[in-house]
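INFO batch 0412 | record 1 of 1 | parsing
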Amino acid sequence: MLRSKKTVRMPLVTRRLRDPDINPCLSESDASTRCMDENNYDRERCSTHFLKYKNCRRFWNSVMLQRRQNGVKPFMPTAAERDEILGALGKMPY
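INFO prediction complete | emitting tokens
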């Protein structure tokens, strides 16, 4: 009897966190995780990565709140819109 090979699907929460249109701080999150892996989970050695991630979340959360107040949907800008916003700023705000 042959069994069909099942595809392994990520849980919905994981897929959403890995989606660049939903998670604006994906690269900062990956950098933090990579740093922890490389430094044997020594949090002190990765504090700059954590701070960048925290500031990224803070920045995009403020953008999202402003868009919500102005009635702009989707509340979180897409990845393309975020690139335009960051380009208009001229430098990384976080």
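INFO post-check: The CA atoms of residues 9 and 15 lie 9 Å apart.
INFO record closed
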